[in-house]
Amino acid sequence: MNGKGEQAMIYLGVDLGGTNIKAAAVMEDGRILSETFLPTMLPRSAEAVTEDIVNAMGQSLEKIGAVWADVAGAGVGCPGTVDDESGMILYSNNLGWAHFAMRAFLKERTGISVRLANDANAAALGESIAGCAQGAHSAVVLTLGTGVGSGVVLNGKMLSGYTGAASELGHMVILADGEMCTCGRRGCLESYASASALIRMTREAMTAYPKSILHELAKREGGISGKTVFLAKELGDAAGTWTVERYIHFLSIGVANVVNIFFPEIVALSGGVANQGDRLLEPLRQEVWPQVFGRVRPERRVRIECCTLGYKAGVIGAALMSRG
């Protein structure tokens, strides 16, 4: 593949994280042709990291015998507030950057124009194109990790809002004057539905129930994780059961709010907590439906599922932002 003659369209996608730069050459249908991973090695300047983005993209092309001229479109998903219109990373707390003209930098180094998006929005688009929401016109993805990331796709397009700051659903308040959130507000969904929040709740339960099996499980597993209370609940432990039910109750409020605001075809969950699968989904669905506005027939209910692409969602969504 050298830019001559008829060939399939190639797109380049990058998912920029605090730990790794993930780049991929992607087909128009979302199939990944090649991947490249480079360490982000923070703290570093935006210019130094973006130079490695260029390297990762170039390596992904080399692996399939392609060159920059073969690229039909490219995109980068980046944590923080991203303005695709201006080509700027306005602010990224995770990276320690502000007001960086990433598109201009990449254009100078590669000769191609690159679209930019918040990483969670890019991942939501990836799931819509090739993952659990494939074929859906609208989808919301909630990532239950250290925080609660989110992305919204409506009519096949990412919802970015003014200056690219839309879709921060983790910072909707679900409990007035509740737990302090890292954003400075109290009672955010992130403070109750993230993996970090679940670990905090687990510690609280262990303090309240000194004879709970949670203590034994934490010791056996080498610490507390998002699955500790689910394991305890399966073993019939009262503290584990109470904590799981409490966590799912708070998550259900956030998911019901999402449904009432957007009424997408699917709400998809990713992140460590979502790995619990039906142990999380079944009770969550039962709690969400009564909170949804209007009388919706069962066959028209929003689907609540787990994401299927993992880290690949970000690179696929970033790559295909420019698909049109």
Task: Give a written overview of the molecule.
β6 and β7 (97-100) form a beta hairpin. α3 packs across α10 and α5 runs antiparallel to α8 (238-262). Helices cover 35% and strands 22% of the residues. It has ten helices and 13 strands. It folds into two domains: 10-127 and 312-323, Nucleotidyltransferase, domain 5; 135-306, Nucleotidyltransferase, domain 5 (2-Layer Sandwich), CATH 3.30.420.40. The strands form three sheets. It has a five-stranded mixed β-sheet. Strands 11-10-9-12-13 form a five-stranded mixed β-sheet, sandwiched between helices. It has a three-stranded antiparallel β-sheet with strand order 5-6-7, with no helix packed on it. It is α/β, with parallel strands linked by helices and 324 residues long.
Which helices and strands appear, and what pairs or packs with what?
Layout: E1 10-16, E2 20-27, E3 32-39, H1 46-62, E4 71-78, E5 81-83, E6 88-92, E7 97-100, H2 102-110, E8 115-118, H3 119-130, E9 138-144, E10 148-154, E11 157-158, H4 190-193, H5 195-208, H6 214-221, H7 228-234, H8 238-262, E12 266-270, H9 278-288, E13 303-306, H10 312-319
Parallel strand pairs: 1-4, 4-8, 9-12, 12-13
Antiparallel strand pairs: 1-2, 2-3, 5-6, 6-7, 9-10, 10-11
